Amino acid sequence: MRYFIGFLITIGLIIVLIVLLFSGGNKSTPSAVPKLLSSYASTDAEVRLTIDGPINAAQSHQKVQITINSSQATFQQLQGYDGTVVNTQSYANTPNGYYAFLRALEQADFTKGNSSPALANDTGLCPLGDRYNMELIQNGNVLENYWTTTCGGLATFEGNTDLTLQLFQAQIPNYSNLTENINF
Q: Helices (DSSP H) in 109-149: which residue ranges?
């Protein structure tokens, strides 16, 4: 009887050894560490803020887009829901300036948000207020896209909205003059 139990234990150990060999020892893979926003400073990546005004007639609807990359800061005023550009202003930027801007956006938690596909579309939300869309774009691909509104409640952006808006607006030297006739 003792030999039979020893035989069963030996067979069990051999099976466990075979399973471990073929499964790679069940090693856990290290979790991916999120890339810092400032690490994009020396790439062709750009960050964009879109301020989308209240839902109104197509002729009256207005948006503002501020796009920043390592060589320029661009302000665009858009008219209607199809985004017809009515005013564009560009300003020179430098890689060092872009790096400093991205570091400041890190402090505002620019890349902190909820990526749930169920919350991806903000169209029609906050109909009497403004919607803010924050994007990180590289090679034409949107790497991150979060939004929030002036109405509160539902949003995907979990960073500091006020600081983010101030940082983007400060990249456009005459922002207040460019937006004085925009109804936000």
A: none
